[in-house]
Amino acid sequence: MPAAGHVAQTGRLLRQGIRLGVVLSCLAVAQAVGPQGRIVYRGFQFDAEPAVDVYVVDADGSNQRALADDQTAFTAMWSGDGRVAAWLNDDDGLFIMNADATGRQRVPDGHYPRDWSDDGEWFATVHFERGRGVDIAKHRADGSDYEALTAEGFSQINSIEWSPDGTALVFSARGGGGAWQDIFTVGADGNGLTNLTDHVSSNYDEHWSADGRNVFFISQRDAGFWVYVMDADGRDVRRLDTDRGVGHLLGASPDGQYLLIDGADLHVLDTDGRHVSQVTDDDLWPRRADWYIPRSILSVTPFGQHLGYWGWLKTLRAGVH
Fold this sequence. Notes:
mainly beta; Thrombin, subunit H; Neuraminidase; 2 domains; four-stranded antiparallel beta sheet; 1 helix; globular
């Protein structure tokens, strides 16, 4: 090899080595810092007058507050840009707002939402026709283009979640007259409905991994309530050996490092099932939740796509020359 070519090749290898070192350093920092971002969740308070409201809390347990100070909300979820969509009880409608509940805008003809796509374009909801059961549907964030995506007539749909890339939805449902819940996926265009679990035990609380390659869920197949993970096509199902009891699996962190569960309070596990931290410690019983981390501090994304680092680093693309 000519000397100039050898020097150029050495330079490329050196640059790639430096970039790999930066990646590994950032991952180490992310793990040392612990859970990042904010969590929005529904909390039940059981007292003389049972009440439900939506709360926001930092993933480290600080800055907990009710979403809105002028009324209660029944459910809420994040968009990828940090906005919140919530069903406000007094106004009886779906609203999009800032994380501090300012700048509220009602969604015309908005249906009760189950999830909001990361790009902020689509809501997932449940379609109901009298005498036919329920199905998966979607509509745009402005309330337009309502469309039913399935026509199965499920007897119950419990939760729905958009895939990270917005091309599919995962949901848990009970078939007409069925005793057990299964987990399904369907394309955002309504094609490819697939039963991922098809098991004679209940399977629910399903959540995509950050890279969209896996689905975490709860199943009762092994005498108890356990967290499992499977490939996105339903293959290679494996149980996590959690070191604490799990009530519900409420979400997976957008950086791919953690799972959010409830056990009377909000708790964080790593993706192997080990307990990491307790987020809340109060009288609220947490239910549906959503986890948001600003893109500027995301520490993990799928290899082969751009790698997001802390805010003081620029975007790097894997395989850059």
